[in-house]
Amino acid sequence: MPPIDVQDKFFDAISSSDENSLRHASHFPHAHAKAIYPAHAVCAAYPAPRVVSIPSSIAISPSSLLRNTHCTLVHAMSSHAPAVRLQQINSHIAHKHPAVSVFDKVATAPEDVIFALTAAYKADNHPNKVNLGVGAYRTEEGKPWVLPVVKKADLILVDDENLDHEYLPILGLEPFRKAATTLILGSDSKAITDGRAGSAQCISGTGAVYTGAQFLARHYPIKGAACYISKPTWANHRAIFSGVGMPVLEYPYWDPSSKGLHLQGMLESMQSAPRGSIFLLHPCAHNPTGVDPTPDQWKQIADAMEAKDHFPFFDCAYQGFASGNLDKDAYSVRYFVSRGFELFVAQSFSKNFGLYSERAGNLTIVAKSVQVKNQIESQIAKAQRAVISNPPAYGSRIVSLVLSDRELYREWEQNLATMANRIIDMRKALFDELTKLGTPGDWKHIVNQIGMFSFTGLSTPQVKVLKEKYHVYLTDNGRISMAGLNSRNVKYFAQAVDDAVRHH
After folding, report:
1. What are 398-407's pLDDT values in tens digits?
2. Which of 64, 377, 436, 478 allows an S-S link to 458, with CB 3.0 to 4.6 Å?
3. What would you give as a GO molecular function for this chain, any one (predicted)?
């Protein structure tokens, strides 16, 4: 049988009726690659299939073998066994035509700073290493703490014969949502009694901020309105709002000279911002500075925002954890509600319940009317359905149970006081050690700040010394988690700070 002249257009597809053909065809590379293939072909264009020989001297585009419906490659002709020949062909193809991913040009994203710190700490074998980066409570022994009240709630849920694992509604567990909203607004809140307070269960505080940001990006009436975040703030704030397409600007917050609140700069920013801008506020335990406005300063902030019709978006991650008093930590939110503001509050139960991995969060909504509240909830439900469908149940069940049971609630308050008081004690201990050492500078801000974090005022070179010489892990901006200090390492840390400040 004479050989046929094979052109690119000759072959188009392989015949699925021949299993052997499919096996051999799978060895061909991507389109446009050129190779020499000695082979037989079955030509289906004839009334009865006939086998035609393709000599090894003919150059065939492998892609062309898959472009003509008339022929199917059956097997390679060779003096060797077919399997050996196919292996040779495959090796030849792989060498000449390496696979290229469609994602080949995707850039590698930088590591998350906090998680990278934790990884570096774990990899460090130094006996005196200290982790002051992680935003999670630790005991005096440096261990994670499961709140006793959470353990009790766990046991109650385990013994509940009615407990199931069915899907929650799109907006979450109703008792949890109501309890969370009441916790932040207060049981006597007019917004609640008027029916103007709504909510959506979210994936912890991060999810609550994202849910609110996504809604504002889509439905805020002032198109192109910017979200103003404090300078500095939690790094995820910028990422979340810019991620939903909103412009992100900063307002002054930290005053390096006083190591306190830059109130004047904050107010001036609110006064100069375009009318109807969005301001992200920390109601308590500001992250990362630990500096909170006083009640009188909150009044000035509310005045400035009201004068320009700005929208307040509170991110409340530390209610009860900051001062140990739930009502005190909610003061700013309740004050703004009493002034008639419409607002959002992102709530996290990671810190104050120790439910870090359970991702229990809530977005509280305060609107002007019941109708508007319902409209907002409907749009959030629509958006949430497309992102997570519905939130997880277990963490929200624990929170709901504790908040709705009087005895468990009282025990929770005691647990909160335990955590808050240990943090306060560590602030005093660090201040005392630095004072004893005569460390240059004024360190009163350590005890004046509140909550889990302290903004030390250490420079980036000084932080580098702490990491490289003393194996103390903290963020480059000098923020430390007070929860990482205890009676066994606070003196060591103070000595490290003293050396870094004196010589760097």
Report:
1. 999 999 999 9
2. 478
3. pyridoxal phosphate binding
